[in-house]
Specification:
- The structure is a single chain.
- With 217 residues, the chain is of the alpha/beta class.
- The chain has a domain of 149 residues: Vaccinia Virus protein VP39 (Rossmann fold).
- It has 6 helices and 7 strands; from the N terminus they run αββββαβααβααβ.
- Strands 3-2-1-4-5-7-6 form a 7-stranded mixed beta sheet.
- It is globular and about 45 Å long.
Length: 217
């Protein structure tokens, strides 16, 4: 889905910075002659193209990149404005920011705490944050609409379970991902493929993530 929505904004970029994914599977489609990955955790980085560092103080000169991606990263940063200004600073004029963030503060759960999140977003809230940082937002859409009813149900179960557990929550080093059977997995992937087809033509009105493409004027 990220590729379907955001690949048109990559163009023929030769200098690309990927922040926070440590070359994870979500960015395998992002290619450039000079691609740099940055992450706070060195374990997922691959030298020499992997740089250990923070989004709040990027170790790069102004206007260093044509494209910067930040998938599920901005919600980890506080202050938010400092992180967005750093993304803006390292982009050249006309450079593109590709981003995704988790949606809806009402969906906050122990999963967000374990992942070290500071906030979740609506589409208007995400657009406002990028605009305030000096970006021009070209596309903003929700993602994962097909599985959204299941997401809502899962968050309701989490909220109930942890309300009764009464245990202290704190960020985790490695966060476990719930496992599902092969049949459920096929169903979920099929629903995501439906989303992908819709996103080729129009934005989705709701979902568990927000995808954004923005330009530095």
């Amino acid at each position: 889905m990220l590729q379907r929505v955001l690949a048109p904004y990559v163009g023929d970029a030769r200098r690309l910075l990927d922040v926070g994914s440590a070359d994870g599977p979500s960015v395998g489609w992002l290619t450039a002659a000079h691609k740099v990955s940055l992450d706070l955790d060195p374990r997922g980085l691959r030298p020499p193209a992997g740089v250990c560092g923070s989004l709040l103080a990027l170790p790069f000169a102004d206007a260093s990149f044509e494209v910067v991606s930040a998938f599920d990263v901005i919600e980890h940063c506080e202050p938010e404005g400092d992180a967005l200004r750093e993304l803006h600073r390292v982009l050249e004029p006309g450079g593109r920011l590709l981003a995704s963030v988790p949606s809806y503060q009402w969906a906050w759960s122990d999963h967000d705490v374990a992942n070290g999140h500071h906030r979740r977003y609506t589409r208007p809230r995400a657009v406002e944050a990028l605009t305030d940082a000096g970006f021009e937002v070209r596309r903003a859409t929700y993602g994962f609409a097909g599985v959204f009813p299941l997401f809502v149900a899962e968050r309701a179960v989490r909220a109930t379970r942890h309300r009764f557990a009464r245990r202290t929550l704190r960020p985790s080093d490695v966060v476990d991902v719930p496992q599902v059977g092969p049949g459920v997995e096929r169903m979920l992937l099929g629903l995501c493929r439906l989303d992908e087809r819709v996103l080729a033509r129009r934005d989705l009105p709701f979902g568990s993530s927000v995808f954004l493409a923005a330009v530095k004027p």
